[in-house]
Design goal:
Oligomer: single chain
Number of strands: 12
Strand order of the largest sheet: 6-7-8-3-9-10-12-11
Distance between the termini: 19 Å
Length: about 325
Amino acid sequence: MVADTIPLVQVRNLKKYFPIMRGVIIQRHVGDVRAVDDVSFDIQKGETLGLVGETGSGKTTIGRTMLRLYEPTEGQMTFDGTDMMDLKGSELRHMRRRMQMIFQDPYASLNPRMTVGSIVAEPLEVHAVAQGKEKRERVQELLKMVGLNPYFVNRYPHEFSGGQRQRIGIARALALNPDLIVCDEPISSLDVSIQAQVVNLLEELQERLGLTYLFIAHDLSMVRHISDRMAVMYLGKIMELTDRNEIYLNPLHPYTKALMSAVPVPDPVVEEKRQRIILEGDIPSPSKPPAGCNFNTRCPVAIDACFETEPEFVEVKKGHFCACHLVKPGQVN
């Protein structure tokens, strides 16, 4: 994955397996849930990489493992030239100031016993960045930045709507002036009308503060709107990664084609002529993925090679990566 500039984030062959244990007194390791299985990608400074896929495909696990909230099983992750996998203790703690996360559920991610001011100020206290008057002013500045009244600092989370709570979560993520923010489905639990407001806020903050996003979501239309590039995940692996418009106009992987065929088009004439690709069956268990390509049990065009060998994730044309036996480098226009 060669880029014109050195990426802010470089992930190589990242794996995160969760062990399956059996037994009550003496526990035995009988297998693994392969939540993330040999994933590689880059994120350039200032860009938004959208990550899409079905529930259980490993999207959230990638984000948490990148931030070392989960310890990786294997692989490398470099952040601004620093190998994140070698950091421990105070070094990791210091680096975490530059990487933050916006969580999916604004109702569960805010402590109901803490005031809004305490929630937003917590990162400042943990990292001893500000105290006293400076801390209070910073909290009010952050609330104002996300569109909330700065004098709401003494209110509690239950006094706010879902959209307002998510803004509080965004303010908390911005407290330490991070470079990278992992947005873990930040709009999935919000009303449609509020989703657009939150996405617009994230775009404004990115432009103003020079932020870099890993944006995880289910809504393909919203991901296309906010992302510069998109990666499609299936059963712990990235199947396709390219520019947001390229992946809509020219999807190469059969799974991506099926996803894009399900995105509604706001034109009844075009929508009537479109051919939907209906996938049969359910996604296999990540503890027992199929041999060969992970998608072979549901792929409508699978060949013998798909059941025998795992396809490589390669650059089939400039900036367009795909893992499919039917897509060869140099054969794609």
